[in-house]
Fold:
Amino acid sequence: MNFINEVIDEETIPTDCISNLTVDNLIFTLHEGKLKVLLVKYNQGLATNKWGLVGHWVRSNENLETAASRVVKNTTGVENLYLDQLGAFGDVDRYPARRIITIAFYSLVRFDDTNLTHGANAIECEWFDVRQVPTLMFDHDNILASCLNHLKYKVRHEPIGFSLLPEKFTLLQLQDLYESILGVTLDKPNFRRKILKMDLLIDCKEKQRNVAHRAAALYRFDVEVYEKLAQFGYTFEY
Structure:
């Protein structure tokens, strides 16, 4: 794979790609109780030794979602992923050398499903806590901030954990997800009462195994209720 976004000279852009249109991907996972974003450090052009989002030029024969999906799959190895468009970023001076417009997408992946691969134009590929990221190249800090604000709204009005949590999870893991996105500490009894009242979860009648602490009960999402809430929405107050 050879992913890259706005960091190479125009003459090196693949001939089958559009010269001023890219996709940038915000790839999120939940790991060690924290929401993390995947970043790469590039080794060419104006982005040399700088961290940025994972991106690539849009090919002439593919639509935007296909381009974003291609980049995410090639980078993470995840085939069945949640992918949604965040928006377009086209400030005239967002890239110093010339005018380039990027369409940002965000993806949600399970950490254990990923097998990271970086392309020839990057030297590192690493997960970062979304609130402890290095300075990013070009306008990628703004894109990340915009996406985190979007996720804050989304988690309050739609279920979001299906693509981030394992199939069976604890209520603490679910609370970690909400806290990581919202950037707050939630009252445990109040959070559990509200979540269970939504009838979104099914008790697996199982407990964790091989853990050093007291084993917690495991739950899974009720897919029918999950999809209905995703379609019609709700309001989660905290």
Q: What stands out?
A: The CA atoms of residues 69 and 137 lie 22 Å apart. Residues 1-11 have pLDDT under 50 and may be disordered.
